Amino acid sequence: MGLNSTVVLTVVLLTMMFGAGFTSAVWGYGLGRSALKEITQPDVRPNNLANKSKNGTRHEGVILLQEKDILATVKKRMEGKDTEVASAGKNAKKPNSAQAQKPKTENAASASANNKSVFPIVSRDGGVSLEVMEATRQGNSLVLSVNLKNESQQSVRFLYSFLNVTDDKGRALSASVEELPGQLPPNSKVYSGTVTIPTALVENSKELTMSLTDYPDQKMQLQMSGIPVAQ
User: Fold this and answer.
1) C-alpha span between 216 and 23 (Å, rounded)
2) Angle at Cα 102 formed by Cα 100 and Cα 106, nearest 5°?
3) First CA to last CA distance, the chain
4) Extended beta strands in 39-127, E state
5) How many other CB atoms are found less than 10 A from the CB of residue 197?
6) What is the pTM of this model?
7) Which helix (H) or strand (E) holds 228?
8) What pLDDT digit, counting tens, does each position of 61-105 carry?
9) Of the candidates 155, 154, 156, 170, which has an alpha carbon nearest to the alpha carbon of residue 205?
10) In the sheet where 164-167 sits, what is the strand order?
């Protein structure tokens, strides 16, 4: 009796499995059919393609020009009509290069003239004078050409690490001094040198202020402002 119940249970389980599988297959087939209901396979048979071409449903091919039209176009080009039209169009669109560059040249010349009119900038104290003669750009540096002269009765010593340079925004700038003597004798001789500042530090600056004092007494104060930054 126990064996019969086991067989029955097995048969029932197998029947349920087959029933579930069949139901899933039918349901999946129905879903796939409904999803592909609106999609049809294109008809690529030669007869149908020929009929569609006659009805105008296909794209048109390359349009061939008539021989008389080609000859007329060639004749016009030989007579120079197309060239004249193209030349007229180019002359109307392109401005005169000399006229376009003239305002820039005039602006640069006026700026250079204004800078030159400012120099020299002079500061004097105790018979010693410091002059800034010119400001120019050389590579990546702003170079100030300076003159130093001692008209007093005694020599004056300078330590150029004390040279203070600031821009119009109050920022202290790094500067190096070349060709100026550390000991300035009282002979009224003019000593020329340069003060070099990296252009990256003065990129947004318009004017500079420079001051120099003697060493070690620091009684003399040579100071000047309004030094234009060369553009």
Assistant:
1) 107
2) 140
3) 112
4) 121-125
5) 22
6) 0.50
7) strand 221-228
8) 556 667 778 878 877 777 765 555 455 555 544 545 555 454 554
9) 170
10) 172-173, 164-167, 207-213, 221-228
